[in-house]
Specification:
heterotetramer; A alpha+beta (503); B mainly alpha (326); C mainly alpha (281); D alpha/beta (585); A: 503 residues; alpha+beta; 21 strands; 20% strand; globular; B: 326 residues; mainly alpha; MetI-like fold; two-stranded antiparallel sheet; 2 strands; 77% helix; binds adenosine-5'-triphosphate; binds magnesium ion; binds nickel (II) ion; cell membrane (chain D)
Chain lengths: 503, 326, 281, 585
């Protein structure tokens, strides 16, 4: 069928985003909704190679230091003002460095950012940083209207409540606790686009309710964790729905058991290896995540640049685990307990809770007794970031490039108390630090790959964390809609080319 | 009711004192928890550096000493301002006001259904006491009383939405249907049926049991004998004499529970994705959105107090012995 | 006062109450012997996940991780009863002490205690319980504490009422005129006489506490180290459509237990309150 | 249903000989005049587990027009059950009429349809209950409650009904009937409520009025008015009145005929003069002998030594109904009270309900603190003493309470109850228990009673236990607050005798509080009359009763029912021979 204008799409959003100003908040739901309102300079395909967005073309100098972007010329903000390089400069030099921690780190690498004309922007780096090209996706560097924010208190700007972007959809109405209504941007710079007239994001707090809503056709799309893994198999059978796990290549999360190296006997890599051997990650994937995901071989997600496919993942081996513990001198006591550890599952839903329960039982088999601790999100963040834990579960996004999303977990200069998603384990290996630092500024792809391969081998032997799965998120989309998941950004895309099949 | 004004004034003073105590108590309680909203936002953003968290703290006023925060908070509440949710970037009152109608609609409907249904069923059971209809009502009431409310909700969804497809299962209205006027009302009512029934069922059971017990108590009283001695019809004795007296304790309990329905609706709002205050409260707990949480506590306490005052007023209407004021 | 045989006769006249007692006895036996009946930990993944009831080796089926539902119910009985009993005990301790003081001393003491009680009654109690558990992180202790904290005010009011009316009863005045101390009067004279209604409401409160715990678990605020019925329903509600048995059986266990406790409460009420017992039912 | 009201124009007293004759041979009544009610072999059975199988057994009597039939008998004898059966008001379903018939003007009420019975109820047969406080619906205006009756049984329109309500209220002697009809019951006094009940009963001009102890809950003065009201209305309308009471004074005052019941059986029936003055059945004789006699001829008390207790200018004001931000009503319960009690003296405190008798008694034992004044015990002021300082005096001053059912802790054994006081004062538990047994014997119970619980005793026995408890402390002063008001007359006599006996034996002083002047006359050396918190007259019994000085005292004495009737001397002699605890049944 040919794309035709018209139609309304209902998408689940859960939890409800706190706000839609993407520069100020980058929670998952915010990205999914605001990704239709705001835009970045680039977007990325499934291989994570850049695609044009607000920038229609770009060049990188051979020394890897100068990035020049050409902007589309007829782009307008939702309030009718033209989008120019002034807005890019404002966003990348003032707004984002002030409020967006990832962008702050990326643009801090620039020696200068300049705009030779209204539609050209030039980034000059202090030293080579090949990952820089992957820092321009809508959530990493959303473009913010300078005319509304220049010279204001960004966080308390009244415009935050009425986001103005350049995207194909505009915010019409937000009934808190109920739905967010986006309407077609009639002045979108690509003629004829978007196709859809309306997008409703519906807040449905209960997981079972979400599955039913999808099934009954009340909503057309779910993403990320909206559908609990056990519902996935059933929903896959529903005739009216398409199922995919694509579109998450950019975030590419890897989950793991985060281990506090400051606590004995967790500081001993034999102990961590024993844990690795004690658990059956296939079981975890199949029975807890219901087949969603792949066993992670090491720190890199296989879709992240620099992944080394030659690494063999650990396999369950209770004898090896016991041998390692014996070697450490941890003998079972009368009850068969060699050591007791506290596990605080991530409070992000029931699946993680189930995982905690599974781990408790598995580790019991090798003589490690586990006490489960429970927290809520706030308590969890506080305790993990302040190193007040023994073992927890966690996952992070890799943002396409090891320099953007992997190294932060393992390098020792990122051991920062009070900061979440840093090296909260307290793992420190000079070799690893060195390899990550060198690889980040290596322009030669082959050399870079070699360094990344080596760092992966070192890490897999050190087991700073016990990797679990390369996580996959299920996306269900009603078969009525086409062109939905097209890039590595997936559901956070602008949906400019999504269209409704004529019945 | 000449005494109404001083009565209300007295109650107001008392209410203010209680509310003040509640504000302080809640504030301290909530702040006793580990973690703060800045932490949560940092956690949910997926990446955060120290500057980010610091900025948030400063913006939320979390870097000030606790007693100062308390003073500030009490001060603003005294001015009728429930504060600002930085997390949600909106004034707390706006957030609550958005959700309040849905919750009120749910809880008040459930309340009315429960009260009317409960009193009717209880009366029916009491006047047929010892017969099968009494036993049936008693058993059903007991079951409703003993079943977890969320379980009832899930079962109803399974039956009426999934299997039979008669009623919508989630939300407040059909989103984007563009309905207006009566159609919209009908749509909302259809959405209301299951949650109201779920929430109301439990309370209906409570009131039915209370009414029954109360009638059995009252029907042995002397004045009922007097009414019989007058040669009145049984129906007149039941409705004109017994029920009116028997209903007093039900009113008292209902008055207390009416105010507490907001709390009870958390579960129902979760199961039915009802965009109400209970759900807002639960989310606020998890997100440590202090300002919102305190606001909800405040509003629901006010509800309880209002309900109590209303109960007392109703009581004086029904029972001439209680005088509003001297 | 009734003799104990009279008590049992009055109690046994209520058939529902006998039924309730029977069920609760079964639950208690289940709780006591859960370790013998199901020696494996209820968390143990003993079988394939999602086995329906009556399949081999799993009488009531297995859950999403292949844990035995029957084992969970047996072990969960322990937790549910424990939470119910302990939190009721704590609530009784707080409520009856405060109520007794308020009712016995009256005046300023009464006023202060009742205002304090009112404060707790003004905050919607389920919200308060949720907040308390969330804040102090879910564990059996925090759950018990939260349930007790939201449950004591009615008991305090009840005890106060009883003490208030008993305080002016002549046998209490006689105790005062014979020079007995306040403590003796409270504990020896008044308390035993106020016990009947308190026992009745306590038995009902156990039921309410079990329900409350299950509701907290439903919201994911249960103790992660303890198998409880509330947890089982809460964990299984999401798969209710694929696997009805996972939430059905523990739900049924809650329902039956709560129902039985209510029936027992009614039976006790009939037996301890002879005026009501005579009434037709 | 049964046609028009048939008036019997003969004057009340004139019909007496006729009925007197009929009582001898009931069958002859039918020929002379048709009885209104003819009860034949009425048997009412009680449910299993009750104290006896039948509430009423094989009861036969008639009620004629234009007469007052008094039904007497002790508590539980089946008086109320008879009345309720007549009205069709037996507590369904467990109490049932299982035998006999009840004819109203010749029609058997028990075989009538429910509709017919309803028309009878409140229309032809009306009833007044004992407890005026609870017999009216608290939530309905009294006028409406009366009107309801009219609505059911007459075809009057609204205005006519309203007029009739006012007329009825006027008839029963209520002030401001128009306003009063719009009042709620709680605003009326007990006497007023009982008048409303009577108005309600009279609303449809019934043929039969059944009054179940209508004055028992009222003060003597009020009782007098109500009795007069009932008698005048009865005479005016020639009704048949069945008047249930246990008070022989009341019987002597109003009865034409008397029926005596015991344990559900009718033991004697006959004209009032005959039953009162020449009772034949031993039970009737026993009852009459127990009636407290108006003036006992006792020796004057001679005061000796210093006053044991002296109350000086005691004042007590209660604030009722006050609250937060509200001022309540003030009730004066003690107004400048002065009173002395000498060793060995019994001072009687009499007066009507609410006059402040208990307040004074309780102030003396330290259960209540007056606002001002002094209470000197052996010269030491008890007021203003702290709890701890008061404690030594507890041994000297003890109290006996009114309600034998409420004054003993139901959860403690009798022995414990008696010994708790001494134990609290440091006595050895075993010794105290031994002493308790001795005391039980002293008050006429078996020592083994110590091992039983209070509920295993009758009212009279419990009151003995209460007395033993007070005595266990070896008091010198006993405050007895209406110690016999809750007891049946025969038991009352026994307890009074016991008190009198003990006080002589132990040389106790006593403050005896009662509202029954006849009782006071029997035991007190000195009488103090109280009214609205004030002692209006105080003096030796003989002079207060024989030559009352204060107007109010005279009113009180005047209100005592049945003064004209003297208990037959032979029965008084019999009474002297009664031993404590003995009972002819
Ligand atoms: N509702 C009832 N159920 C069972 N037995 C009853 C009931 N009411 C009264 N009785 C019993 O019936 C008998 C007669 O009671 P009734 O009330 O007629 O006595 P009474 O002569 O009116 O006594 P009183 O002077 O105390 O009013 C008593 O033995 C009493 O215990
Ligand atoms: N604790 C109290 N609080 C308020 N008012 C009281 C209290 N006790 C007694 N009164 C009032 O004081 C007045 C005198 O009461 P008191 O009990 O002394 O009367 P009484 O002469 O013993 O009457 P009765 O014969 O009814 O026992 C009454 O009007 C009563 O309502
Ligand atoms: Mg009676
Ligand atoms: Mg008194
Ligand atoms: Ni005798």
């Amino acid at each position: 069928a040919d794309p035709a204008r018209g139609g309304t799409m209902n998408i689940i959003v859960q939890p409800e985003p706190p706000m839609l100003q993407l520069g100020l908040n980058q929670q998952g739901p915010t990205q999914t909704v605001a990704g239709k309102i705001y835009q970045g300079l680039l977007t990325y395909d499934e291989k994570l190679d850049p695609l044009p967005s607000l920038a229609k073309s770009w060049t990188v100098s051979d020394d890897g230091l100068t990035y020049t972007f050409k902007l589309h010329e007829n782009v307008k903000w939702h309030d009718g003002k033209p989008f120019t390089s002034k807005d890019v400069l404002f966003s990348t030099t003032k707004f984002l460095p002030e409020v967006h921690s990832r962008a702050r780190a990326n643009f801090a690498r620039c020696e200068s950012i300049t705009a030779p004309d209204d539609y050209t922007v030039v980034f000059k780096l202090k030293e080579p940083f090949p990952a820089f090209i992957r820092a321009f996706e809508v959530a990493s560097a959303p473009m913010i209207p300078a005319h509304l924010y220049e010279g204001t208190d960004f966080r308390n700007n009244p415009a935050n409540a009425t986001p103005i972007g350049t995207g194909p959809f505009k915010l019409k109405e937000w009934v808190k606790g109920s739905y967010i209504h986006l309407v077609r941007n009639e002045d979108y710079y690509k003629p004829g686009l978007p196709y859809l007239d309306n997008i409703y994001f519906r807040v449905i707090p209960d997981a079972a309710s979400r599955a039913l809503a999808l099934e009954s056709g009340q909503v057309d799309q779910s993403q990320y964790n909206d559908i609990e893994p056990f519902d996935v198999a059933r929903l896959k059978e529903v005739k009216s729905l398409n199922f995919t796990t694509k579109g998450y290549e950019f975030v590419a999360p890897v989950s793991w058991l985060e281990i506090n190296h400051r606590v004995k006997p967790l500081d001993d890599k034999r102990f961590r290896k024993a844990i690795m051997y004690a658990i059956d990650r296939e079981f975890i994937r199949d029975k807890i995540w219901f087949g969603l995901g792949n066993v992670a071989s090491g720190p890199f997600n296989s879709s992240t640049k620099g992944f080394d496919s030659s690494i063999v993942p650990y396999a369950k081996n209770v004898d090896k685990a016991k041998a390692l513990l014996d070697e450490m001198g941890l003998k079972p006591d009368a009850k068969g307990v060699r050591a007791t550890v506290k596990l605080m599952p991530m409070p992000y839903g029931e699946t993680w809770q189930r995982l905690g329960e599974y781990l408790k039982q598995s580790l019991k088999q090798v003589g490690i007794a586990v006490v489960l601790e429970s927290t809520d999100v706030a308590g969890w963040v506080q305790r993990v970031s302040n190193w007040d834990y023994e073992i927890t579960t966690n996952f992070t996004y890799q943002y396409g490039d090891p320099a953007l999303g992997v190294s932060r977990t393992y390098v020792s200069d990122n051991i920062r108390k009070g900061v979440m998603f840093s090296n909260t384990m307290g793992y420190s290996n000079p070799k690893v630090d060195e390899l990550f630092a060198a690889a980040a500024k290596e322009n030669d792809p082959a050399k870079r790959q070699a360094m990344y391969s080596e760092v992966q081998k070192v890490l897999v032997d050190d087991v700073p964390v016990v990797w679990l799965l390369e996580m996959q998120f299920p996306t269900f989309v009603s078969k009525k809609f086409n062109n939905v998941i097209t890039t590595g950004i997936g559901v956070n895309e602008s949906y400019e080319s999504v269209y409704l099949s004529k019945p | 009711m000449a005494g109404l004004v001083p009565f209300l004034a007295g109650r107001m003073v008392k209410a203010v004192v209680i509310l003040f105590a509640i504000v302080v108590l809640n504030f301290l309680l909530v702040h006793a928890a580990p973690g703060d909203p800045a932490m949560v936002m940092a956690g949910e953003a997926g990446a955060a550096d120290a500057k980010f968290v610091e900025q948030l703290r400063e913006q939320f006023g979390l870097n000030k000493p606790l007693h100062e925060q308390l003073m500030t908070y009490v001060g603003t509440v005294a001015q009728g301002d429930l504060g600002f949710s930085y997390r949600q970037q909106r004034p707390v009152w706006d957030l609550i006001a958005d959700r309040l109608p849905a919750t009120l609609m749910l809880t008040l409907s459930a309340f009315v259904v429960a009260l009317v249904g409960g009193i009717l069923l209880g009366t029916l059971a009491a006047i047929n006491s010892g017969k099968w209809s009494d036993s049936a009502i008693t058993v059903v009431a007991l079951l409703a009383y003993a079943t977890p409310i969320y379980w009832v909700g899930l079962m109803l969804i399974l039956l009426f939405s999934v299997s039979l497809g008669w009623l919508p299962a989630f939300g407040f209205e059909t989103v984007g249907a563009g309905l207006t006027g009566l159609d919209r009302l009908g749509d909302i009512l259809a959405h209301l049926v299951l949650p109201v029934f779920t929430l109301g069922l439990f309370y209906m059971a409570v009131y039915a049991r209370m009414t029954r017990a109360s009638i059995l108590e009252v029907r042995d009283m002397d004045f009922v004998k007097t009414a019989r001695a007058k040669g009145l019809r049984e129906s007149r004795i039941v409705f004109g004499h017994i029920l009116r007296n028997a209903i007093l304790p039900v009113i008292t309990v209902a008055g207390v529970q009416g105010g507490h329905l907001i709390g009870g609706s958390i579960l129902v709002e979760t199961v039915f994705a009802w965009p109400g205050i209970g759900r807002l409260a639960f989310d606020a707990v998890l997100q440590r959105d202090y300002q919102v949480l305190l606001g909800i506590f405040f509003v629901s306490s006010v509800m309880v107090i209002v309900f109590n005052i209303l109960t007392d007023l109703v009581y004086t209407l029904v029972d001439p012995r209680i005088e509003v004021a001297k | 006062m009734k003799t104990s045989s009279g008590f049992w006769a009055a109690y046994a006249r209520n058939k529902g109450a006998v039924f309730g007692l029977l069920i609760v006895a079964v639950v208690i036996v289940l709780a006591l012997f859960s370790g013998v009946l199901f020696p494996e930990s209820p968390w143990e993944m003993v079988n394939a996940p999602f086995l329906p009831p009556m399949s081999d080796g799993a009488l009531l089926g297995t859950d999403t991780l292949g844990r035995d539902i029957a084992a969970g119910i047996a072990h969960g009985a322990r937790m549910s009863l424990w939470i119910g009993l302990v939190s009721t005990g704590v609530a009784l301790l707080i409520g009856v002490s405060l109520g007794a003081l308020a009712g016995f001393f009256g005046g300023v003491v009464d006023d202060a205690i009742m205002r304090f009680t009112e404060l707790f009654q003004t905050i919607p109690n389920f919200v308060l319980a949720v907040v308390l558990v969330a804040i102090f992180t879910p564990s059996s202790t925090s759950i018990v504490a939260a349930i007790a904290i939201v449950s004591w005010p009615p008991l305090a009011r009840l005890a106060r009422g009883e003490f208030l009316s008993l305080r002016s009863r002549e046998f209490v005045q006689a105790a005062i005129t014979t020079g007995q101390s306040n403590l003796t009067i409270i504990v020896r004279q008044i308390l035993p006489n106020s016990l009947s209604p308190i026992i009745v409401s306590a038995s009902l409160m156990v039921a309410t506490a079990i329900l409350l715990e299950s509701s907290l678990s439903f919201l994911g605020l249960g103790d992660p180290n303890q198998m409880s019925w509330g947890y089982m329903v809460g964990a299984a509600r999401t798969v209710i459509r694929q696997a009805w048995w996972m939430s059905f059986f523990p739900g049924l266990a809650i329902l039956l237990t709560v129902l039985s406790l209510n029936l027992i409460g009614e039976g006790l009420n009939d037996a301890l309150n002879p005026k009501l017992a005579r009434k037709g039912r | 249903m049964t046609g028009t009201v048939t008036p019997f124009p003969a004057p009340r007293r004139a019909s007496a000989p006729q009925t007197e004759g009929s009582a001898m041979s009931p069958s002859s009544v039918a020929t002379a005049v048709e009885p209104l009610l003819d009860v034949r072999g009425l048997t009412i059975s009680l449910p299993d587990g009750a104290d006896r199988p039948y509430a009423v057994e094989n009861l036969t009597f008639t009620l004629n027009p234009n007469e007052i039939l008094c039904v007497v008998g002790e508590s539980g004898s089946g008086k109320s059950m008879t009345a309720h059966a007549t009205m069709g008001l037996l507590p369904k379903p467990h109490v049932k009429v299982t035998g006999g018939e009840l004819l109203f003007r010749g029609h058997n009420v028990f075989t009538m349809s429910e509709t017919e019975q309803r028309a009878l109820r409140g229309g032809r047969i009306a009833m007044v209950f004992q407890e005026p406080m609870t017999a009216l619906n608290p939530l309905k205006k009294v006028g409406d409650q009366i009107e309801e009756s009219l609505r059911v049984h007459t075809s009057l329109d609204k205005a006519a009904r309203a007029a009739r309500v006012v007329e009825l209220l006027t008839q029963v002697g209520l002030p401001n009937p128009a306003d009063l009809s719009k009042s709620y019951p709680f605003r009326l006094s007990g006497g007023q409520r009982q008048r409303v009940m009577i108005a309600m009963a009279l609303a449809c001009e019934p043929d039969v009025l059944i009054a179940d102890e209508p004055t028992t809950a009222l003060d003597v003065t009020t009782q007098k008015q109500i009795l007069e009201l009932i008698r005048s209305i009865q005479a005016e309308r020639h009704m048949g009145v069945m008047f249930i009471t246990h008070d022989f004074g009341v019987v002597a005052e109003i009865a034409d005929r008397v029926a005596v019941m015991q344990h559900g059986k009718l033991v004697e029936i006959g004209p009032a003069r005959q039953v009162l003055n020449a009772p034949t059945h031993p039970y009737t004789r026993h009852l009459i002998a127990s009636v407290p006699h108006y003036i006992e001829h006792r020796a004057d008390f001679t005061k000796s030594g210093d006053a044991l207790l002296e109350a000086r200018n005691v004042n007590k004001v209660f604030n009722v109904g006050g609250g937060f931000l509200r001022k309540g009503r003030q009730v004066v319960a003690g107004d400048d009270i002065c009173l002395t009690i000498h060793p060995g003296e019994t001072v009687g405190l009499v007066g009507e309900s609410g006059s402040g008798k208990s307040t004074l008694g309780r102030s003396i034992v330290g259960l209540m603190t007056p606002n001002s004044g002094q209470i000197l015990f052996k010269g030491q002021n008890l007021l203003g003493l702290k709890r701890r300082e008061f404690r030594p005096f507890r041994r000297d001053i003890q109290m006996v309470f009114q309600d034998p059912y409420a004054s003993l802790n139901p959860r403690h054994k009798v022995g414990d109850i008696i010994s708790q006081g001494p134990v609290a004062f440091g006595e050895d538990k075993g010794k105290a228990l031994t002493r308790a047994r001795e005391l039980l014997q002293l008050v006429g119970l078996d020592g083994s009673a110590a091992d039983r619980y209070p509920h295993q005793f009758s009212g009279g026995q419990r009151q003995r236990i209460s007395i033993a408890r007070a005595l266990a402390m070896d008091p010198t002063l006993l405050v007895a607050d209406e110690p016999v008001s809750a007891l049946d007359v025969s038991v009352q006599t026994q307890v009074l005798k016991l008190l009198d006996d003990i006080r002589h034996r132990l040389n106790l002083s006593m403050l005896f509080i009662t509202h029954d002047l006849r009782v006071a006359a029997q035991v007190c050396d000195t009488i103090a009359v109280m009214r609205r918190g004030k002692i209006v007259e105080i003096g030796p019994s003989r002079s207060v009763f024989g030559d009352p000085q204060h107007e109010y005292t005279r009113t009180l004495l005047d209100a005592i029912p049945g003064k004209a009737w003297e208990i037959p001397a032979e029965l008084l002699a019999e009474r002297a021979g009664h031993s404590a605890g003995g009972h002819p049944s």
